[in-house]
Amino acid sequence: MALRVVLLRALIIILFLLLLWLGAILLKQVAIIGIPFVSSFFKEVGNGETTSFWNDKWLGNFSLRDRFKRLVRFESNLDVRVRDRASCMGSNRVGCWGWSRVPFGRALGELDELNQLLSSHVSKGDGPDAWRWGGSTSGRFTTNILSESVTTKLLHAGTNVFETLRNNLVPKKVEVFVWRARKRRLPVLDWWGMGGSPNLGLGEMFQGKASLCMSEDGAKIWEAVEWICGYLIWKNRNQKVFNNKCWSPPVALCEIQVKSFEWIAKRYKSKNIDWHTWLHKPQVLVS
């Protein structure tokens, strides 16, 4: 029994360390594409009971300890809370200092600047202090908003390929798939010799232009169909390779028709797309 408990504890520790390692990798990758995830969190002060006056970032994207390096030397207690150093006067705050000795020299200039910051800070009331995330307007962190931010960064990295890669008729995952295909970042580079030259790559497959006889909206719909077709073929190719699930051509066509209708009809706002037209006369939608 004792051995089982020791092994269970060891397994929990290993899993915890593994999660920390994976989290560090993910945060590094998020930072590489230009999203300052860690530094985007800040403290919203209410009653000031749990927020460190000098060490937490509550007056901006900086701590007062780093901002006022001369003045902080005169502080008698570096762990003091906001409530003990910044009392509320109406909707603003004023300093209530506890110096170990009277500040002098350049520290007085920093003290004036700090007093101005405190007087301009609007109090949030007597509620508890809370951490907020700068990545959303509500201040609440959600994985959906972070996922949207990452996708947007990936699709707008500053090259011509990214600038022309938006199509709001398809889900984000399809856009990411096409971006990866164009950048040759899929494990298999050749498109099995289908649809033209045996050397046709996935990137070239999505570089084609729509027919000149199509309307602007029609070209967008046709592009969305191409993208969805490629995405579903790639998805089911992975099912075949990794799960040994076969995908027959009739089933493939049926899924492409259903999924493309479901995604495009839901997002296309110019006019209604009915199932019968989509299935039997799709040409009228792109003319």
Keyword list:
single chain; 287 residues; mainly alpha; two-stranded antiparallel sheet; 12 helices; elongated
What separation lies between the terminal Cα atoms?
74 Å
Mean pLDDT: 76
Rg over alpha carbons: 29 Å
When the domains are counted, the total is 2
Low-confidence stretches: 158-164, 188-200
Number of strands: 4
Number of helices: 12
Enumerate the strands of the largest sheet in spatial order, edge to edge or round the barrel: 1-4
Tell me about the largest β-sheet.
2 strands, antiparallel
Q: What is the H/E order?
A: HEHHEEHEHHHHHHHH
- How much strand? 5-15%
Structural class: mainly alpha
- Work out the helicity level: 40-55%
Morphology call: elongated
